[in-house]
Amino acid sequence: MSTPTQFPLRSVLAAALLALPLAAAHAIDFRSLGEPAILYDTPSEQGRRMFIIAPGTPVEVVVELDAWIKVRDPGGSITWVERRALTPHRTLLVTSDSAIVRRAPEQNADAVFEAARDLVLDMVAPPSAGWVHVRHRDGPSGFIRVNEVWGL
């Protein structure tokens, strides 16, 4: 009868430490559409055209392949888009029915404006302590809760 192999604790810890850089390499990457773009079912213009996505829409990068990027859109669909359609400019999509953009990153701060579901906002700065600094395309800026937007 064989007994299970026992690994020394040192080996287990070394394996865990080696895996840490891999976990960091798999961070979620979001980008935004800089122009209206056709989403395809394959990474080719000969693929089936699924639908057109509006400029400013944030998408999650799943795979990068030369001139094509496989993305997940806010609705959860996974499709391909031409790399040239994406911009490094970051946007966020409001997912709450109604979200209050506040003057400061505090629940009791004054309201700057109310953002309706599916409104695209520019991300001004990365999120911090549950809030993200955003700007409306018409100019007003403020802070919104991270759980009220998609694209982070």
Word description of this protein:
This protein is elongated. It has one helix and 14 strands; from the N terminus they run H-E-E-E-E-E-E-E-E-E-E-E-E-E-E. The protein is 11% helix and 46% strand. It has a five-stranded antiparallel sheet, with no helix packed on it. A hairpin with an 8-residue loop joins strand 9 (98-102) and strand 10 (111-116). The longest helix is centred in the N-terminal third of the chain and has 17 residues, at 9-25. It starts with 8 loop residues before the first helix and ends with a strand. It has one helix at residues 9-25, and strands spanning 29-33, 37-40, 49-53, 58-65, 68-72, 78-82, 86-87, 91-94, 98-102, 111-116, 120-128, 131-135, 141-145, 149-150. Mean pLDDT is 87; it is low at 11-25. It has two domains: 29-87, SH3 type barrels (Roll); 91-150, SH3 Domains (SH3 type barrels). With 152 residues, it is mainly β.
Write the layout of secondary structure elements.
Elements: H1 9-25, E1 29-33, E2 37-40, E3 49-53, E4 58-65, E5 68-72, E6 78-82, E7 86-87, E8 91-94, E9 98-102, E10 111-116, E11 120-128, E12 131-135, E13 141-145, E14 149-150
Antiparallel strand pairs: 1-4, 1-7, 2-3, 4-5, 5-6, 8-11, 8-14, 9-10, 11-12, 12-13
Shape: elongated
Distance between the termini: 52 Å
Strand order of the largest sheet: 6-5-4-1-7
User: In what range is the share of β-strand residues?
Assistant: over 45%
- How can the largest sheet be summarized? 5 strands, antiparallel
Uncertain runs: 11-25
**Would you tell me the overall average pLDDT?**
87
**SSE string, helix = H, strand = E?**
HEEEEEEEEEEEEEE
Q: Find the count of extended strands (DSSP E, 2+ residues).
A: 14
The Rg value, from CA coordinates, equals 20 Å
- CATH names the topology of the largest domain as SH3 type barrels
Task: Give the full name of the CATH homologous superfamily of the largest domain.
Answer: SH3 Domains
User: Helix segment count?
Assistant: 1
Count of distinct structural domains: 2
Share of residues in helices: 10-25%
Structural class label: mainly beta
Architecture per CATH nomenclature, i.e. the level-2 architecture of the largest domain? Roll
Please write the CATH class name of the largest domain.
Mainly Beta
